[in-house]
Amino acid sequence: MAAVCCSTLLVLMAWPAATAAAAVTPDSLLNICMDAKHHKTEPGPEGQLYGQCVLWKDNACCTANTSMEAHEDQSYLYNFNWDHCGAMPEKCKRHFIQDTCLYECSPNLGPWIDQVDSSWRKERIRDVPLCKEDCDQWWEDCQDAVTCKVNWHKGWNWTTGTNQCPKGAMCQKFKYMFPTAAALCEQIWSGSYRYTSYHRGSGHCIQMWFDPAQGNPNVAVAQYYARGNAPSTSPLSLLLSLLPLTLLAQL
Ligand SMILES: *[C@@H]1O[C@H](CO)[C@@H](O)[C@H](O)[C@H]1NC(C)=O
Ligand SMILES: *[C@@H]1O[C@H](CO)[C@@H](O)[C@H](O)[C@H]1NC(C)=O
Fold first, then answer.
1. pTM to 2 decimals?
2. 232 versus 81: which is more confidently predicted?
3. Residues lining ligand 1, CB < 6 A?
4. d(CA 73, CA 21)
5. Which residue out of 162, 167, 171 has the highest number of ligand 2 atoms within 8 Å of its CB and is therefore the one to mutate?
6. Which residue in 93, 91, 63 sits closest to 81, CA to CA?
7. Cα-flanking dihedrals φ and ψ of residue 136, to 5°?
8. Domains of the chain: which residue ranges?
9. Which of 14, 169, 185, 228 is geometrically suited to a Cys-Cys bond with 135, CB 3.0 to 4.6 A?
């Protein structure tokens, strides 16, 4: 019993120091823009946001110019060609436009920002918990679109200045490339999104689409995850959160 007591105390004493050293407080993850290619340094109102990006006009990490470019084929943003295996149907493309708007404009992705060592950005997003409906609809509407790659972040032939299918990569319908909605949302941007079974409006998943008249639902979702209420808490942090109770019980 003594050994349990003292190692418990030791952990408790070391814990606040370790947390302070990391210097990530819950609030520093809220209302921020990632350090990437086109993001503003800080979020703020943008009266002129264009088209599908207009949802973020009250508080955005994108400029009006970026929001307009997000709707262009092969825009100056990334020179990315959606039509690399033939024209992408409009009903599918609108999901890629919305995905670009969320990525460029949302100030609520802080809990999922990760450092990267890349020539064109210092930060990226990883494992953003996407609402089930947003991912399912994306997959549904893109069944007949065609592509030659599962991971669109890597492996293209860029010699012409835009992405072309690399040699040997066959163009196939999305439904064969991505057998499930989860495969599409999780693999296409190499783990930027995580498929969840949470529903829109649950407060536990990020919505790519929302009704701005009701406010931005992702504000509360970021708060929920930043404050560590996430259900995917690791066993270690769960143990740590229970320790004070254990200690009290022993006194
Ligand atoms: C956005 O800005 C870039 C760089 O200044 C420019 O080349 C591009 O034409 C602009 N796009 C729009 C739609 O205004
Ligand atoms: C890349 O594309 C260029 C131009 O289309 C082509 O000549 C070259 O063989 C391609 N390389 C690979 C590795 O696919």
1. 0.82
2. 81
3. 65, 68-69, 76
4. 45
5. 167
6. 93
7. -60, -45
8. 1-25+231-251, 31-216
9. 185
